[in-house]
## 1
Amino acid sequence: MLIQKPILTDKSQKIYQKSKIYVFSVLPHATKFQIKREVEGMFQVKVKKVRTSQQKPVLQKTRYLQKSPGRICTKLQKKAFIELVPGHNLPNFFRE
């Protein structure tokens, strides 16, 4: 499973309302072709376009009260912005 979960934030809802684009969190090594194939197989829809973006790992602050303070980094995250062919939609993605 390359697709981990849908992203249901306020910003993703505005993107959906404006241009009917769905946002998913995917594995960092997934390619656009693999994401397109998996969405089409999972939801039985036709995908028009897939765009991706990566969020680099960020160094977080640590407390010095711990026994062994070290560097803690966030994980590499990747988002997929999926636009479907007109007439197709994902059921129950955003309840309107």
## 2
Amino acid sequence: MTFTHRERTIVELLPTHLNYGQIGDELYVSVNTVKSNVKSIYRKLGVSSRYEAVAAARQLGLINGHTSGVMESPPVDRTS
């Protein structure tokens, strides 16, 4: 499985608690570009959530196992 340079960069940011808009700001791209790349990443990894993508990326060695600010468990939806 091959990832584009942009996809690899986004994969590395998925474990952080940055939302897609903040990731876009970091990379100087639109939130829609981030969303499009995330969909492609999910498809390539065979996952359907950010948490699963992080776990799969760690297992494949695409990102480090533990880093400061990483997502250790699925985010809690506090909007309800």
## 3
Amino acid sequence: MDVERYADAAAQALGLPLAPEHRPGVLRYLQMVAQMAPRVMDFPLSPSVESANAFQPVAPEDLPAAHAGGDAATRVRP
């Protein structure tokens, strides 16, 4: 995988400016992810395995009273 070409194309497609000082870290991260991808994709899953639920953020004012306290990390959606 050409991580430099990928980083440039992804940043352009997303309209996301990539600051020169961030580029080395982004390229290192993409290289690391590219090395991990085959292990993840090759991991055997049975047909009964389902994907995880999608994260849905909830505004504090929409939480039930029992969950209103605590910090955002401990709040759960009923």
